[in-house]
């Protein structure tokens, strides 16, 4: 005898809505240390470089900046959470504001909670900032792994660039020396990533009137050591 129990339709099928584990538009490596950062600005649709100018760093409140690699829609959702957090904090109007350490701790709880639901945001996040003269730089992975360091990276850079930063970074590095070091790291990543391009954006983080600001320094290109006669492009 056929059961009268209704069978779940397509819209009710749990598998029909589980799509956050499939990356669609992804962002590549991100490197940052002290007050210097460098990032690729391309968004990849599979192996296709679909978006050629993607903003990947956002100010959070007065004291923090957030950068990310991974799925761009997950990054946008996390930004919405943070906008609500900052709005709620500002509503108290008590003269205090969330610092980078508090925002980083909040992010780690969010991604760990999503991980426990088997629905993690497909992102690696870097949170940096300055409050009351104290610098802070932390990272959080898609499964909630987090730590603080003087130099952090995401994506391929976490495996290939951090050893270079660990060997050559020091506390008294000038801005120009820092840019050269980041370019060296990006060159190494460019050689080893088939979907990478040599178009980069670098920037400087400054404190202006007790607020943190990110100054993009324009687009640059890493010299990959190829002669112009060997380069082919298609429109």
List keywords for this structure.
235 residues; alpha+beta; Glutamine Phosphoribosylpyrophosphate, subunit 1, domain 1; eight-stranded antiparallel β-sheet; five-stranded antiparallel β-sheet; 6 helices; 13 strands; 31% strand; globular; disordered C terminus; transmembrane helix; proteasome; Proteasome_alpha; Proteasome subunit beta
In terms of DSSP E residues, the strand content is: 25-35%
Looking at the overall shape, the CATH architecture is: 4-Layer Sandwich
What is the count of structural domains? 1
Task: Please tell me what the overall shape is.
Answer: globular
Spans of at least 5 consecutive residues whose pLDDT stays below 50 are 6-12, 224-235
What's the multimeric state?
A: single chain
Q: From the alpha-carbon coordinates, what is the Rg to the nearest angstrom?
A: 20 Å
Layout of SSEs?
Layout: H1 14-17, E1 25-27, E2 30-33, E3 36-40, E4 43-45, E5 48-51, E6 57-60, E7 64-71, H2 72-91, H3 100-116, E8 123-131, E9 134-140, E10 146-148, E11 151-153, H4 157-160, H5 162-168, H6 175-192, E12 199-208, E13 211-221
Antiparallel strand pairs: 1-4, 1-7, 2-3, 2-11, 3-12, 4-5, 6-7, 7-8, 8-9, 9-10, 12-13
Care to give the gist of this entry?
With 235 residues, the protein is an alpha+beta fold. It is built from six helices and 13 strands. The protein has a single domain (22-219), classed as Glutamine Phosphoribosylpyrophosphate, subunit 1, domain 1 (4-Layer Sandwich), CATH 3.60.20.10.
């Amino acid at each position: 005898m056929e059961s009268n129990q209704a069978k779940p339709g397509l819209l009710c099928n749990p598998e029909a809505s589980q799509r956050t584990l499939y990356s669609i538009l992804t962002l590549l490596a991100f490197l940052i240390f002290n007050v210097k950062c460098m990032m690729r600005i391309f968004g990849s649709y599979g192996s296709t470089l679909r978006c050629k100018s993607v903003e990947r760093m956002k100010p959070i409140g007065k004291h923090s900046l957030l950068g990310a690699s991974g799925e761009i829609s997950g990054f946008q959702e996390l930004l919405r959470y943070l906008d609500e957090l900052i709005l709620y904090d500002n509503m108290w109007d008590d003269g205090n504001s969330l610092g980078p350490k508090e925002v980083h701790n909040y992010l780690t709880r969010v991604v760990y909670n999503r991980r426990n639901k088997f629905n993690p945001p497909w992102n690696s996040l870097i949170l940096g900032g300055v409050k009351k003269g104290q610098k802070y730089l932390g990272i959080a992975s898609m499964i909630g792994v987090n730590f603080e360091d003087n130099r952090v990276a995401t994506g391929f850079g976490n495996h290939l660039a951090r050893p270079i930063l660990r060997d050559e970074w020091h506390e008294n590095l000038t801005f120009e020396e820092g840019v050269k070091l980041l370019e060296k790291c990006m060159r190494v990543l460019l050689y080893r990533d088939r979907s990478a391009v040599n178009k980069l954006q670098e920037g400087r983080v400054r404190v202006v009137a007790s607020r943190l600001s990110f100054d993009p320094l324009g687009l640059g290109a890493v010299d990959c050591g190829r002669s112009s006669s060997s380069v082919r492009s298609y429109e």
